[in-house]
Design goal:
This protein has 464 residues and is an alpha/beta fold. It folds into 2 domains: 300 residues, Zn peptidases (Aminopeptidase, 3-Layer(aba) Sandwich), CATH 3.40.630; 139 residues, Aminopeptidase i, Domain 2, CATH 2.30.250.10. The protein is 30% helix and 24% strand. It contains 11 helices and 22 strands. A 9-stranded mixed β-sheet has the order 1-2-3-13-4-14-20-16-18, sandwiched between helices. The chain has a 6-stranded antiparallel β-sheet with strand order 8-7-10-5-6-9, covered by helices on one side. It has a 3-stranded antiparallel β-sheet with strand order 11-12-22. The longest helix is centred in the middle third of the chain and has 21 residues. It is globular and about 75 Å long.
Length: 464
């Protein structure tokens, strides 16, 4: 059952739409390299489509009606967007869910130090990374610094062409004989992923201090001048190290996109755009974008939190229809596409894939009946009836799709948020876009797959 390449069925109008959607997607990737930036950008875009803050609706005592569009934000790192349908709330929602966090390096709370006339920032990696991939690259600093007076400073260094970048050093090949004997997981150790941020000393009156800390003092001076930031302000900062540079078209035929953070912002953006551009539907539509998936969906902004429950309860209150029964039925009767990326088949590493059940770039939206690892551990495993419904929706709307597993059975695996949403009793299946070099600083996706995902998500939202 080999699936055809989506490019082969493209008409002229499809190609125009592929260019349009991929262009919007690249803009989003550049604007949102952290969860906070993603939520800020999508909130701004949603408002241009007529979405209102659910808190404003509740505060003003207005009652939502079919066709109304609202959003709720949690701690500036997660967002739920709703468009009210005409059917009773007890019949549930059509939900597109994805995550907006990505593997990266986080600056520690006491990070700044000087060694050998060089200034560094200590980091702690976030999510599953191959540590050796993060050395010898131009890197940028994104995030916020919260000060004791309540003010919050936005930080973005390394993205503007006039900005400096930061860097993690690697050992030169001439002296790396012993290093190259190590396992790949040990070639670069986590504590050595320190960010090089300066080498120019600040002349000081105290000769002893000048000898030991002059470069560090110069970095503190610069932070003070530009951001009014003291060293202790690192204690209440959330600073993320990400690859510097814009998303790029990839391939001589410009058929792909290379960029940081496509796991899982490729699914997040296509889900968001599908909701924004969909026609009013009978069932209430929802796009839920969450944080912390890369570290187990934990915390106040992960899928395991009560954010989505609270947002749904607030929605029902604003509709004048809240009751425990309505609340439970609305969630239990909902249907979800848990949209997360799949590992694209890479012929350079064909031995870890099972070819008949692999995801291929260019063959459309990927459905994963189950994820997990070794015996489906941590998997949702969608039931056959729901898989059949999704097949029907995609076929009826001429959406190219494929089915896949994450590699050979004994090679490893990975999980998504699908099993968490399924706890409400709703139907859930994993779907998404195939990615090459997943979790690397730069990942690759197919423009055709991005467009087919967008089409598939729109078709799903319209289903009754």
């Amino acid at each position: 059952m080999e699936r055809p390449n989506a490019w082969l069925s493209c008409q002229e109008e499809d190609e125009k739409q592929i260019d349009r959607v991929s262009g919007l997607y690249r803009h989003f990737l550049d604007a949102g390299k952290t969860e906070r930036e993603c939520v800020k950008e999508l909130t701004s875009q949603a408002r241009t489509y007529g979405y209102e803050d659910l808190r404003d609706i509740l505060r003003e005592g207005r009652t939502l009606k079919p066709g109304d569009k609202v959003y709720a934000v949690g701690m500036k790192k997660t967002i739920a967007l709703f468009r009210i349908g005409t059917k009773a709330v007890q019949e549930g929602m059509q939900i597109l869910c994805a995550h907006i966090d990505s593997p990266r390096l986080d600056i520690k709370q006491n990070p700044l130090y000087e060694e050998a006339d060089l200034a560094f920032l200590d980091t702690h990696y976030y999510g599953g990374v191959k540590k050796y991939q993060w050395v010898a690259l131009p890197l940028a600093i994104h995030g916020v610094v919260a000060k004791k007076d309540g003010s919050v400073l936005d930080i973005c260094i390394g993205e503007n062409p006039s900005d400096p970048v930061v860097y993690i050093t690697d050992l030169l090949i001439h002296l790396s004989a012993k290093q190259l004997q190590k396992k790949a997981s040990e070639v670069v150790e986590g504590e050595n992923l320190d960010i090089l941020v300066g080498s120019r000393p600040l002349p000081l009156e105290d000769e002893e201090k000048q000898k030991k800390e002059a470069v560090k003092e110069n970095i503190l001076r610069l932070l003070k001048e530009k951001y009014e930031m003291e060293e202790e302000d690192f204690l209440s900062a959330e600073l993320e190290i990400v690859p510097a540079g814009q998303a790029r078209e990839c391939g001589l035929d410009r058929s792909m996109i290379a960029a940081y953070g496509q796991d899982d912002r490729v699914c997040a953006f296509t889900s968001f755009l599908a909701l924004m551009e969909s026609e009013p539907a009978e069932r209430t539509s929802c796009c839920l974008l969450v944080d912390k998936e890369e570290i187990g969906s934990v915390g106040a902004t992960g899928m395991s939190s009560r954010f989505f429950e609270n947002a749904t309860a607030d929605l029902l209150c604003a509709m004048g229809q809240f009751s425990q029964t309505n609340f439970r039925l609305m969630l239990a009767n909902s249907r979800m596409l848990s949209s997360d990326v799949s590992a694209g088949f890479d012929p350079a590493y064909a031995n870890v894939f099972e070819k008949k059940n692999a995801a291929y770039l260019g063959r459309g939206l990927v459905l994963n009946k189950f994820t997990g690892s070794r015996g489906k551990s941590g998997s949702n495993d969608a039931n056959a009836e729901y898989v059949a419904r999704i097949r029907r929706i995609l076929d009826d709307n001429k959406v190219c799709f494929q089915t896949a597993e994450l590699g050979k059975v004994d090679e490893g695996g990975g999980g998504t948020i699908a099993y968490i949403a399924a706890l409400y009793g709703m139907e859930v299946i994993d779907s998404g876009v195939a990615v090459l070099s997943m979790h690397a600083p730069w990942e690759v996706t197919s423009k055709a797959d991005i467009y087919e995902a967008y089409k598939g998500y729109r078709a799903f939202l319209a289903d009754v």
